[in-house]
Amino acid sequence: MQLYSLDSDSILAKALAASLGLPIASHEDRHFEDGECKLRPLLDPRGADVYVIYSLHGDSLHSPHDKLCRLLMFISTLREHGAARVTAVVPYLAYARKDRQTKMFDPVNLRYVAQMFESLGTAQMIVLEAHNVAALQNAFRCQMMHLDVHPIFDALVLELAGTDALAIASPDPGGVKRAQQWRESLETTLKRPVGFAMVDKRRSAGIVSSENLVAGDVNGMSVLLFDDLIASGETMNRAAKALLAAGARQVIACAAHGLFIDPASEILTSDNIAKIIVTDSVPPFRLAADAVLRDKLCIASAAPLFAHAIKLSHATWLR
After folding, report:
1. Among 34, 92, 277, 315, which residue is least crowded by beta carbons within 10 Å?
2. CATH architecture for residues 150-301
3. Tens-digit pLDDT string for the chain (319 aa)
4. From CA 51, how far away is CA 58, in angstroms rounded?
5. What is the CATH number of domain 2-148+304-318?
6. Residues sharing a CB contact under 8 Å with residue 263, sequence separation 6 or more, in sequence order
7. Alpha carbons 25 and 4: distance in angstroms, whole number
8. What is the DSSP string of 51-71?
9. Which H helix or E strand runs over 50?
10. What is the rounded CA–CA span in Å between residue 78 and residue 81?
């Protein structure tokens, strides 16, 4: 087995390598003056089961489409030089939010991304908490391992909420299934009832609106407000405000991916949200060095989840 990381500073990649007991294989990452790049493995991939980890969020060095292109070209290079199987380990999958047509002549970006990975011979994708799991699984024809994030949140949640009565809430109708799955899992873990709620939300042309309607009883409860990602934080803040108005004791925002685009640093300091839990799929580099916000933030490592998935995948491949 070989493990590559196209982000040399990735904390998640280093933790994953440690969990697997593998070194991160070396590669050449050469940049040219006009912005082109060359990615070359420095370990012979012939006959190997190869895993390439790269989270496709934009950062100060590369945009999401830059990273997508880099990953696709590196997978192609591995295949070109005889890798038996190449798996793309993509903690955050760019373009997954645009998974259906909602307006005339809309693109379906998720499907186009899937076609690019498949056309280059990617054998398998491992993705953490996609925006829409059904759309993800329908878009990709290669093998797909989708990892639910909620198991790695359980320990943190119990530490933060203590013995409080708990409820899981979705900040919008689209996330109801995700929240219900965590509720069912948490009830099994805790061996006690966990409530459920949903907050109304509508989005059109990028404008979010709602009447702060809450379906479900959250009175006196600590509410775990669960979504796949936090971008500006507006959706979470609106939903938290509505839940508190409905009687929630506190709201803990939980999401797999913390993108934290502007004005997240301002919005998330609101008293509506007591704590914020995200994974290390996206480093919180966009957050201002605000003491209040940093005190709210808890980061759970996704490395054990990915390590388990890779061990299972490799063992199955060896049979």
Report:
1. 34
2. 3-Layer(aba) Sandwich (3.40)
3. 999 999 989 999 999 999 999 999 999 999 999 989 999 999 999 999 999 999 999 999 999 999 999 999 999 999 999 999 999 999 999 999 999 998 999 999 999 999 999 999 999 999 999 999 999 999 999 999 999 999 999 888 888 877 889 999 999 998 999 999 999 999 998 889 999 999 986 655 555 555 578 999 999 999 999 999 999 999 999 999 999 999 999 999 999 999 999 899 889 999 999 999 999 999 998 886 666 777 899 999 999 999 999 999 999 999 8
4. 21
5. 3.40.50.2020
6. 232, 233
7. 5
8. EEE------SS--HHHHHHHH
9. strand 49-53
10. 5
Please, is 248 exposed, middle or buried when counting C-beta atoms within 10 Å of its C-beta (0-12, 13-18, 19+)?
buried
Q: Which helix (H) or strand (E) holds 199?
A: strand 195-199
Q: How far is CA 273 from CA 222, 237, 254, 292, 314, in A?
A: 11, 7, 10, 11, 41
Rounded distance, CA 16 to CA 47, Å? 22
Domain definitions of the chain by residue range: 2-148+304-318, 150-301
The phi and psi torsions of 185 (rounded to 5 degrees) equal -65, -45
Instruction: List CB contacts of 297: < 8 A, sequence separation 6 or more.
Output: 258, 275, 276, 278, 284, 287
Residue in the block written with tokens 């060896």? 318
Q: How many residues does the chain have?
A: 319
The DSSP-derived string for 201-238 is: -EEETTEEE----EES--TT-EEEEEEEEESSSHHHHH
Query: Do 2-148+304-318 and 150-301 fold alike per CATH?
Result: yes
CB neighbourhood size of 208 (10 A): 13
C-alpha span between 75 and 229 (Å, rounded): 27
- Residues in CB range of 15: below 8 A, 6 or more apart: 280, 301, 303
Question: What is the pTM assigned to this prediction?
Answer: 0.94
In sequence order, what are the beta bridge partners of 166? 222
